[in-house]
Specification:
By secondary structure, the protein is α/β, with parallel strands linked by helices. The chain has a domain of about 210 residues: Rossmann fold. Helices cover about 35% and strands about 15% of the residues. The chain has an eight-stranded mixed beta sheet, with helices on both faces.
């Protein structure tokens, strides 16, 4: 039996940010948070909310800058510490001190940072196609192939990228779902397209500000990116029980970004899905649910 989803809910956080969220299940049951990526919103987790609302309080927020949540205009408002704080304060606003966190893409970047900085908040961490920050930093700094694969990040950082993404009925933005190719994936139905267009019409400046605020992007002549960072690798260790699920047919984030991950995560399981792309959550929602369920029960 699947749970029904409640929308039109807002949390007014102690830092002044208002987050919209969808949920399923009863408050008071164990909390499981789902954090989406770019260019998505809480709707990406609909199958997971229905599944885990049966025995959890399952909550999927629109991250700040997306859809119906607040969209600060300042780039500095999207620095990692603020995004981490949003999830911490959301859990507190819902009445929880600890929770399970499931995250994809940019949501995964926030989740890694939260797990590193505030491990006491997390029961378990589940990451889907989002690289550990130290391994991604190294790849962007040292590997020409990764620098080339990630050039879209520098394009998104440019002034006016949000306007370009909205042109021609979001043609460029929909290209991300096509893995920058021309074939529309089967999961991107007319109904799904309608829901995403409704989201994107609310504004894209917040979404692209994630890229502008982050130092993790390919270096350029004027923006050194990871070359300028002074980071102690030991400060990047994850001490939370973690499962990573990775679609290996991800054009932007290739599977070699998993190499060496066990050195940075004390308790790690990796599940590789050879045919899966970056959009694995949409492509194989039932399989994702089974993998999450299996991890929760161990």
């Amino acid at each position: 039996m699947t749970a029904s989803i409640q929308t039109d809910q807002f949390a007014h956080l102690a830092n002044g940010i208002r987050l919209h969220y969808a949920s399923a299940g009863e408050r008071g049951k164990p909390l499981i948070l789902f954090a989406h990526g770019f260019p998505e919103f809480c709707y990406a987790w609909e199958a997971q909310l229905r599944e885990f609302g049966a025995d959890h309080f399952a909550v999927a927020p629109d991250l700040r800058g997306f859809n119906r949540s607040d969209m600060p205009h300042e780039v500095s408002a999207y620095k990692a510490r603020h995004l981490v704080d949003d999830l911490r304060l959301l859990a507190a606003d819902l009445g929880y001190e600890r929770f399970v966190l499931v995250a994809h893409d940019w949501g995964g970047a926030v989740a890694w940072s939260l797990a590193i900085a505030l491990p006491q908040l997390l029961e378990k961490l589940i990451i889907i196609n989002s690289p550990h920050p130290w391994l991604f930093l190294q790849a962007l700094r040292d590997e020409p192939a990764q620098q080339q694969s990630s050039q879209y990040m520098n394009w998104l950082r440019r002034e006016g990228s949000e306007q370009a993404l909205m042109e021609n009925d979001f043609t460029l933005l929909e290209g991300f779902f096509r893995n920058l190719g021309t074939t529309t994936p089967a999961w991107y139905t007319d109904e799904v397209r309608k829901r995403y267009h409704e989201c994107w019409r609310r504004g894209l400046h917040g979404a692209v500000n994630y890229y502008r605020a982050s130092p993790l992007h390919p270096p350029t002549d004027t923006e050194p990116g990871p070359l300028s960072l002074k980071v102690d690798p030991e400060e990047m260790r994850v001490r939370v029980s973690t499962r990573v699920i990775w679609g290996e047919n991800d054009h932007a984030l290739p599977k070699h970004l998993l190499d060496g991950l066990e050195q940075w995560v004390d308790d790690l399981q990796i599940v590789r899905i050879a045919e899966g792309t970056h959009w694995l959550v949409h492509e194989q929602p039932d399989r994702i649910n089974r993998l999450i369920r299996g991890f929760l029960e161990t």
